[in-house]
Structure formats: C-alpha cells, structure tokens
GCN5-related N-acetyltransferase
Amino acid sequence: MREKFSIRLISINEIPEVTNWARLEGFSPGMDDVSIYRNTDKQGLWVACLENNPIGSIACIKYNSSYGFIGLFIVKKEFRNNGYGVKLWKHALEYLKNVDCIGLEAAPDRLNDYSKWGFRKSSITNRWKLNGSQDLPLRNFYKDQFHSFKVVPGNKISSEAVLIYDDQREPSPRPHFLNDWLKNSHGNVSAIVDNNGMCHGFGRIRPCVLEDNEQGWRIGPLLADTPPLAELLIRELVGDLNAQILLDCSNLNPYANYLLSSLGFEEISKTYRMYKGIQPPCPMNQVYGLACLELG
C-alpha cells in the first residue's frame, strides 16, 4: 500500500532536521538560518511528508508582489526519483504565481532542469573560503587612510540607517528579513559610519555547520561603498577566528574577486543565479557578500 504524500508548512520542532539535511547537502547552513526563513514568510517554508513524516523541504519566500525566491529545495536521498521533488517544486511555483519575478540559485548540473520551467541564467555566484584569520595578510591590502570613517558594532548604528543603505543595493526591499537577520543572537554585525553617523557599509558573520559536522563561519551580507571599506569590514568580522570562513559573492561585482583573492580567500564552488519573470534592476558593485543562497 502506497504511503500518503502531503505538503504542509514546517513546524518549529522540524527546523533542526531540515537544517541537518542542508548540512548533508553541503549548504553549510548558519545557526538559526532556517528559523529566519520561516519568520520572513510564515506561509513560505514547506515540508513534503509521507504519513506526515518530513522527507523534503522547499522555501518559497514572497518578499512582496514584485519579488520572491526559492531555496532550501531538498528531498532526502532515499526518497528521490519518486516524483516528490516535482510536487514540491510545483507547490512553490503555485505559491509564487502572482509574483513578477522569482529568483533562485542553481547548481551547475541543474541549469537545464530550471530552464525548462522558464528560468534564465543571470550571473554566477562564487563561494569563497578562508581557513581562518591566520590566512589574512598582516597588512591591509589597500593603503587608503580612513580618517572620516570608523567600524562600529551593529548595535551602535540605527536599524533605519542600515535598512536605507541595503534598500539602495538590493533588487527588492527586505526590511523584515534583514531586521531578523542582523539582530539574531548568533554571530556579530559590524558597520562602517562616517563622522555624521551615516552608513557606508555593513556585514554579518555567523556560525555555521559544515558538511563534516564541524563548526565554521559564514559572512553575509557584506556591503560597502568601496573595496577598501569592504576590506575593513572583512578584517573586523573575521577577527581572530581560527576556523573555516565562507562567503558567497556575485560575479556582477567587478571588484570582489580581486579583493577576496588578495585577502587569502580561495574560490571553492559556484552556483548560478536564475530568474523567471521581470528581473529587477540592481547594481551589484557594492555587494561583496550575499546574506544566503536560500533567500537571495
């Protein structure tokens, strides 16, 4: 007798299980990331079940009527090739059917699959790795003087200043997500301010779980006016951490690859940003790190 299949909203007590699936897939999920996804759109994080036992997940986050994002699309290996993933996928598209543009990050071997559903390749997202603070050059790569700027902890700058800065550099405003992301108790936030208290960059570093179950760190988001200011933020966020540090960055930023490689980061993998619908215009030359690949 065939087991009953269903799709329902995730429950709080299932978040650790889905986080572990993400670890096994090599996503290196941050501590509490999935809880924030759930809180960003309380109707947008789903699990596929057999007899009400979760076997798969998908996040289909609706930021507003113009923009949505699909991620955390997982079916446990032992349940693949039974059509469950397609049912999850169709469920996500149905939920986002009235959104003008849907984004996702695709592994290289999934490009053709998503293209068949109307998604088009936009850019490459590179994942970079630093093996700890000891790999950073002792001296600043950029020699600029910063008499008019200083790096401050995230709680020393107003949320409004950070949200305004972010809104001008993201394809769609995301105040609810960003507020939860930056105020989460896991990790640290730093910002760059001028003498008038205006924001010129910010970033967050958070603990994550690596595929081998060791603890690492993820930087993201990371935004800054210029490469030298991005370097200041990276050095502040990394501090004296002696563990693997990951950062995801779009190749649409023409300065990022040069900066990151000069600071000792190594490119280890890549995914492809794809869109279905009207792609929002968004210059990326001040975005040095994405918050996460699951929510764009």
DSSP finds eight helices and 13 strands in the chain. The chain has a mean pLDDT of 92. The first helix runs from residue 15 to 24.
